[in-house]
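Hey, quick one: can you model this chain's 3D structure?
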Amino acid sequence: MPATYETEAVVLRSIRYSEADAVLALSTREKGRVSAIAKGARKTTSRLGGRLQPGVLALVSIHEGRGDLGTIRAASVIDAHAGLWTEGHRLQSAACVLETVMRVMPEYEPSEEAWHLLTRTLALLARAPAPPGPARLDPLVLGCQAKLLVVSGLLPLLTVCARCGAGPPLPAFSAASGGAVCDGCGAGAEPVEPGALAALAQLVGRPLSEAAEALPRESAAGTERLIGLVLREHLGVRLRSAAPL
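Sure thing. Here's the predicted structure for all 245 residues.
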């Protein structure tokens, strides 16, 4: 039978539907990623519209219908992450994080680790200073993406060769083989930018709040590339917000 449940949720994406409705992708604490329609949310008189913007943490009531698309019956804001809306770089960085969670986390598979990672990242971004470079290379963005690899069981080997187990130097990377590779096993692998393996390991191992210290500026693009190679190989995902591989 159809049922209604209440859960904490972060809006990942909002798509216009009909004249006044919106279809939302939500990361929920109770059920993982779900989709739901907010009827009338785009009307100027709607109480739902302002409470269901991307990046907002809300308590929502969702009615499950017969299909995969639920209906949002009510919503109240827990944390609007207001700082995201006061600085353009914060909003752009948050958009990168929201896209990553939406593309990487499967539907209806709740993960307490992924939930806490998402909400923690948004809270930090809401008060973060502007980093040098583009939003996609923000240390908090790459730190969140690196830790999502752990949560998803996709973290590659970074300190030993994924093919033979040899130690450094590891000048290449093969997502298909499971990580970094040595000179002798490098056939068909991608060259690794200097410092990228160490930077990715640091982002994984250190608290998210220390992401800026863990990621040297010159290693940001190479780290993003490693993350992208893993997501493409294992999930078939290419993030729109990331640089082309």
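One thing worth noting: Residues 124 and 228 are 23 Å apart (CA to CA).
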